[in-house]
Design goal:
about 15% strand, eight-stranded mixed beta sheet, about 500 residues, five-stranded parallel beta sheet, 2 domains, Rossmann fold, about 45% helix
Length: about 500
């Protein structure tokens, strides 16, 4: 590789970097933008890095996630971490001087200049006068969009192997949701993966309104809802917080906040767009970017097949249970395998989440899969916020799947939980299986007053208790099911 070309790129990059960083960390009034909950995880790993207490696997951190959810912002806020530290971050403040060097790099820009990571970092080692084997200084590398380099996995494996024996280098890299799929086998043992998801309602309140819900309340509700002994226990625990929750919604949260969140609150890039049509278009542009830049790399589809992806997503957005054969017919897709491949890449790209049927007694079927959008904002944008009759409750199911993926699975309390659904007619929306193999049967929707679906599933599946989210009041039913207003779920 032409060394002069790399030097010219690096010089230009360093010259424009301060403006790039400022564009991510400040608003138009030059006030620091608020940070998401995930940022606390970044602070912890930086603290461990400065204190030489990183484990081997933490020296390389991969952050896959769907486009448009703020991965670049998280990286740039980490680059400028000093500006975001508070008095309670005393340990980092005292040790930040140990950080000798840091580099934020957009790998897509390298790719545009046809410069590989290998060639760039050979140049970087030379001009900085260090070797990864023994740098003798603390260096933080923040690599954005690393998947643009086709050999990114081998590059990181090489960095890991070269830094064995010391803890002076920390690499944090972002990429598309498909990052883990393309990860080479050896790298899986040499890196820690932090998947980044769209925003929860709590995070939306922080970024949109600068309202900070109580972390203690969130933890309390999570434990009460999904880690209680029985339904009576849940009811009593939630009753203790009912007044606090209602006062918070009445006194602190703007009237349309819940509605606006479900329409466009999943993506940081769209929450401050006041014009709803423009907010929808912004989210649609995220989908177009995923199709153009991620899906086409995952599988080779013919051009006329790619053109049908948006139509496929629209059909999924306005459906509950779907029939592969009906979709295949509607889209005029000749082969069932092609449709299955399209759905698979939509899952791999992070747009969709597939939930399996509960247990083996029902078996699995191609004809009735449960497919959810990773954030309600995607479904709302595809439908232009106009839901067909009986479908609007699906956005609440999308939200629960997000909570499962982002909060429940990430909690140390639940081990390796599983989420499934009852395929039988009249069955509940979800079955949450916890580490002790006990089940919680869950139904969710707007104005949910009936408990019939939960009762139907509980008759067949041994369950700890049932939950019905969406009722008007908190209520205990027959000591086995708790009807819970949506606000309790939103504040997790």
């Amino acid at each position: 590789m032409d060394k002069i070309k790399i030097e010219q790129f690096y010089t230009k990059w360093q010259t424009t970097l301060p403006q790039r960083i400022e564009g991510y960390i400040y608003d138009e009034n030059r006030k620091l933008l608020p940070t998401r909950f995930m940022f606390s995880k970044f602070k912890k790993v930086i603290e461990k890095f400065l204190n030489n207490s990183l484990s081997e696997i933490e020296k390389i951190i991969l952050m896959p996630g769907i486009r448009g959810i703020g991965k670049s912002t998280l990286l740039t806020q980490t680059y400028a971490i000093e500006k975001f530290l508070k008095p309670e971050d005393k340990n980092i403040l005292e040790n930040i001087g140990k950080l000798d060097d840091k580099l934020y790099l957009d790998v897509s820009q390298l790719h545009a200049e046809q410069i590989s990571l290998y060639d760039f970092f050979n140049f970087y080692e030379e001009i900085k006068g260090f070797h990864f084997e023994k740098p003798n200084k603390k260096i933080l590398f923040l690599l954005d969009e690393i998947h643009f380099d086709e050999n990114w996995g081998l590059f990181l494996k090489n960095i890991f192997d070269r830094t064995k024996g010391h803890k002076d280098v920390l690499v944090i890299a972002t990429g598309s949701s498909a990052l883990q799929i393309n990860m080479i086998a050896d790298l899986g043992r040499r890196s820690d993966v932090w998947e980044i998801f769209p925003m929860t309602f709590n995070e939306y309140l922080i970024l949109k309104y600068n309202k900070y819900p109580s972390p203690e309340l969130s933890d309390y509700l999570l434990d009460a809802l999904f880690n209680s002994t029985n339904a009576s226990d849940i009811f009593e625990r939630l009753l203790q917080k009912k007044s606090e929750i209602y006062k918070y919604f009445i006194n602190e949260i703007p009237r349309d906040a819940e509605k606006d969140f479900f329409e466009s609150g999943g993506f940081p890039s769209s929450i401050n767009i006041e014009n709803k049509l423009k907010a929808v278009e912004k989210i649609k542009s995220v989908i177009d970017g995923i199709i153009a830049k991620d899906i086409l790399k995952l599988k080779n589809f013919e051009t006329h097949t790619v053109a049908k992806i948006n139509d496929l997503l629209y059909l999924l957005a306005q459906s509950d249970l779907i029939s592969y054969s009906k979709i295949q017919e509607a889209l005029k897709i000749n082969r069932a395998e092609t449709l299955e491949n399209l759905i698979e890449v939509l899952i791999m790209s992070g747009i969709l989440v597939k939930i399996k049927t509960y247990g083996t007694s029902y078996g699995s079927t191609r004809k009735t899969p449960k497919l959810f959008f990773i954030t309600p904002s995607l479904r709302s944008a595809l439908l232009n916020n106009n839901y067909p009759s009986g479908i609007e409750g699906k956005k609440l199911e999308d939200y629960f799947v997000l909570i499962f993926q982002k909060v429940i699975k990430d909690s140390q309390t639940f081990g390796v939980p599983k989420l499934s659904y009852d395929i039988a007619e009249g069955g509940a929306d979800f079955v949450l299986t916890l580490k002790d193999r006990s089940n919680i049967v869950i139904e969710i929707g707007f104005n949910k007053e009936e408990v019939r679906q939960v009762q139907n599933t509980m008759k067949k599946i041994k369950s700890r208790y049932g939950l019905v989210f969406g009722s008007s009041e908190l209520e205990l039913v027959k000591n086995s099911i708790v009807k819970v207003p949506l606000r309790f779920l939103l504040l997790i």
